[in-house]
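Re: weekly structure request thread

Next one in the queue (230 aa):
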Amino acid sequence: MFRGLFFARGLATSVRNVESVRNTLKASDSRKTFLIDMYTHFWRENEIVLLAHHNNLLSTENETIRKQLRKIDSKHTENRLEFRKLKGSLFRYFLRANGHQDPASKAAARWIKRHNIRHPLENLCKGPTAAIIIKELDPKLVKDVIKFLSTQKDRLFVMGGKVGDEIMTLENLEEFKNMSSLPELRAELVGLLNMASGGGVTRTLEAASSTLAMTLESRVNELEKGEIKE
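Done, posted below.
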């Protein structure tokens, strides 16, 4: 009896272990699976991803660009910027598969085929493509990056990307980069509240306090009159 119980428990454990193994389209330890997992991570864990075309940068040009981007990054100490070259065809596949829980899985491949999934940014990834990855929503950082890339001419230029969950064209990014940053918006809000506190908000609070005091005083008087009558 006990032997059968132990066997059943062992079998159940084995089944759970098999179920926990990812059923990936390519081998789980293959480079393609690794890259799709990497794309999934930076796409889902960062607020901004800018897609840029690069004209087959030489190693020296590549290092110069990384150095300049690190310099821009150092000016924005509360954020983080990263530059990565992408494997275009595989990244296009990832964009289609990203709507699935596990983009590297066989289930994702079947899902793409069944629903004929396409992504609005996939056409930007034809040819040599790079991603500029920014952790937080920061229009000023995007502005600095686009300004720097404009000096690179045809060697490296932004084509579009995503901000939060929104797909962005180059025109959208031009508008976004001129917006106020979150700290600036917070400062503006605090300023407005401080201004209001000197006027309407203060008067409203004072009026509410006065009304409450009058109500309490009236109630006390009523109770005192009741005690006298008794």
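Residues 1-9, 11-19 have pLDDT under 50 and may be disordered. The first strand starts at residue 48 and ends at 54.
Next request, please.
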